[in-house]
């Protein structure tokens, strides 16, 4: 009997490792595609003789459609099956990548990027929800999420490097083709390695709530995209976002238990804390990367390539720390791991603000390493805290919501910290002000997560 139990455990572990490998492939191809396309913008512009507006939309159409589709992707995963929706998203993503690689015109390329964003919005929430269902023990789930989160850092570091190798030798179309073999491999593995799961209870589609939720997220993302080029469009988009959000809330309140955002999810204090901390984390993190690279290049301190290299300490430390974040959160408690991680990021931003434009950038590099340490310590446990405290039947929607917090924080952070940098006249003062604002938001998110998390950490479910 003991031998049989031991064999069963070994088979389960092997199955779980293959499942995690598949989910890591999914998140890596989506994130590499996001980071790699920025390097190809110049070559694409020269090939199509594209306007600056077309180039901006080649980059931003992914983020816009991704944001708009997140809530729908999470709901579809819960209702129709997480593996099924992940496979559909992967097929869309792969086909869209081929469209991008073969695009005869800039508008077709923009369409391909938009479809890629739709595929990503189906894949990412489904992959996070699958982790919630497959790893039913909190400790094992936290370790799996640490590895899953580390793949974001790998993609962040690998994307620009891969683009730098491909572009001179194979041209800009290769940056879209490179993810296709890995996407096909992920699809094949998903069919064998991922068990199907869904919410057994019937749930209405709630089309009106989906429409206004998508409109609110899309308008917010568009406001950030247009912040630097068209302030009037930004203001109009923000007004639409606020109105759509108000209508969304009004519709949701009337539907009670059948709401798209179930009260069962939003009533959990740990989930709300994870949302707040995630928003603060990406607000400061993405905003910092945008402003620091801009400050280095505007001051003549570093060029674009050197700026990318100088940002590596954050990615490398993140990659090293994130796989162990689950074990660390078990030892320290998820409260310390999540709030402490985001607090470390805030300290890192203060160091970057103080030393980013000094003659010796070593203090800024140290700040980047501290930021990467906080990101690696907190990102996996934050996802674990978000999905681990909700019912498995709602895992897809919980995963979608934590991604809404992530992309909303990133979008608002780039816009707000960029505006703070410009308002202060750029340079040392602009960098310091923007980093102080970013760290303040991160400290606030960490404090909210601390207050809303039980002292004993994640409860067994």
TrEMBL record:
<feature type="transmembrane region" description="Helical">
    <location>
        <begin position="20"/>
        <end position="41"/>
    </location>
</feature>
<dbReference type="GO" id="GO:0016020">
    <property type="term" value="C:membrane"/>
</dbReference>
<keyword id="KW-1133">Transmembrane helix</keyword>
<dbReference type="Pfam" id="PF07690">
    <property type="entry name" value="MFS_1"/>
</dbReference>
<keyword id="KW-0472">Membrane</keyword>
<feature type="transmembrane region" description="Helical">
    <location>
        <begin position="231"/>
        <end position="251"/>
    </location>
</feature>
<feature type="transmembrane region" description="Helical">
    <location>
        <begin position="304"/>
        <end position="324"/>
    </location>
</feature>
<feature type="transmembrane region" description="Helical">
    <location>
        <begin position="61"/>
        <end position="79"/>
    </location>
</feature>
<dbReference type="InterPro" id="IPR036259">
    <property type="entry name" value="MFS_trans_sf"/>
</dbReference>
<feature type="domain" description="Major facilitator superfamily (MFS) profile">
    <location>
        <begin position="19"/>
        <end position="457"/>
    </location>
</feature>
<dbReference type="InterPro" id="IPR020846">
    <property type="entry name" value="MFS_dom"/>
</dbReference>
<feature type="transmembrane region" description="Helical">
    <location>
        <begin position="336"/>
        <end position="354"/>
    </location>
</feature>
<feature type="transmembrane region" description="Helical">
    <location>
        <begin position="110"/>
        <end position="135"/>
    </location>
</feature>
<feature type="transmembrane region" description="Helical">
    <location>
        <begin position="271"/>
        <end position="298"/>
    </location>
</feature>
<feature type="transmembrane region" description="Helical">
    <location>
        <begin position="207"/>
        <end position="225"/>
    </location>
</feature>
<feature type="transmembrane region" description="Helical">
    <location>
        <begin position="430"/>
        <end position="452"/>
    </location>
</feature>
<feature type="transmembrane region" description="Helical">
    <location>
        <begin position="147"/>
        <end position="169"/>
    </location>
</feature>
<feature type="transmembrane region" description="Helical">
    <location>
        <begin position="175"/>
        <end position="195"/>
    </location>
</feature>
<feature type="transmembrane region" description="Helical">
    <location>
        <begin position="366"/>
        <end position="392"/>
    </location>
</feature>
<dbReference type="InterPro" id="IPR011701">
    <property type="entry name" value="MFS"/>
</dbReference>
<dbReference type="GO" id="GO:0022857">
    <property type="term" value="F:transmembrane transporter activity"/>
</dbReference>
<keyword id="KW-0812">Transmembrane</keyword>
<feature type="transmembrane region" description="Helical">
    <location>
        <begin position="404"/>
        <end position="424"/>
    </location>
</feature>
<feature type="transmembrane region" description="Helical">
    <location>
        <begin position="86"/>
        <end position="104"/>
    </location>
</feature>
<protein>
    <submittedName>
        <fullName>Multidrug resistance protein Stp</fullName>
    </submittedName>
</protein>
């Amino acid at each position: 009997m003991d031998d049989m139990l031991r064999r069963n455990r070994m088979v389960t572990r092997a199955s779980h490792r293959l499942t995690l490998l598949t989910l890591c492939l999914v998140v890596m191809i989506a994130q590499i595609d996001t980071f790699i396309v920025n390097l190809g913008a110049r070559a694409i512009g020269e090939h199509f003789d594209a306007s600056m507006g077309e180039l901006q939309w080649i980059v931003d159409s992914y983020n816009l459609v991704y944001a708009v589709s997140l809530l729908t992707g999470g709901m579809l995963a819960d209702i129709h099956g997480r593996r099924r929706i992940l496979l559909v998203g992967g097929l869309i993503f792969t086909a869209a990548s081929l469209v991008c690689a073969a695009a005869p015109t800039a508008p077709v390329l923009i369409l391909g990027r938009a479809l890629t964003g739709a595929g990503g919005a189906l894949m990412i929430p489904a992959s996070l929800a699958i982790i919630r269902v497959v790893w039913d023990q909190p400790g094992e789930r936290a370790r799996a999420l640490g590895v899953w989160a580390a793949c974001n850092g790998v993609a962040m570091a690998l994307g620009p490097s891969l683009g730098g190798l491909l572009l001179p030798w194979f041209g800009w179309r290769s940056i879209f083709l490179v993810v296709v073999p890995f996407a096909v491999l992920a699809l094949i593995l998903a069919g064998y390695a991922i068990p199907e799961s869904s919410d057994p209870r019937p749930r209405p589609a709630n089309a009106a709530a989906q429409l206004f939720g998508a409109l609110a997220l899309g308008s917010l993302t568009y406001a950030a995209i247009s912040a630097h080029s068209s302030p009037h469009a930004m203001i109009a988009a923000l007004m639409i976002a606020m109105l759509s959000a108000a209508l969304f809330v009004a519709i949701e309140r009337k539907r009670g238990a059948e709401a798209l955002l179930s009260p069962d999810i939003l009533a959990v204090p740990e989930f709300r804390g994870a949302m707040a901390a995630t928003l603060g984390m990406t607000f400061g993190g993405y905003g910092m990367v945008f402003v620091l690279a801009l400050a280095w290049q505007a001051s003549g301190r570093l060029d674009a390539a050197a700026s990318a290299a100088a940002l590596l300490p954050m990615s490398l430390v993140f990659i090293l720390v994130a796989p162990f974040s689950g074990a660390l959160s078990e030892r320290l408690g998820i409260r310390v791991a999540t709030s402490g991680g985001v607090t470390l990021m805030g300290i890192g931003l203060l160091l970057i603000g103080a030393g980013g434009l000094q003659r010796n950038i070593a203090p800024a590099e140290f700040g980047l390493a501290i930021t990467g340490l906080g990101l690696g310590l907190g990102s996996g446990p934050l996802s674990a805290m978000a999905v681990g405290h909700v019912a498995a039947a709602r895992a897809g929607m919980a995963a979608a919501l934590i991604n809404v917090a992530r992309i909303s924080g990133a979008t608002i952070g780039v816009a707000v910290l960029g505006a703070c940098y410009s308002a202060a006249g750029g340079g040392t003062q602009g960098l310091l002000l923007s980093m102080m604002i970013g760290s303040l938001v991160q400290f606030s998110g960490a404090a909210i997560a601390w207050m809303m998390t039980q002292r004993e950490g994640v409860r067994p479910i």
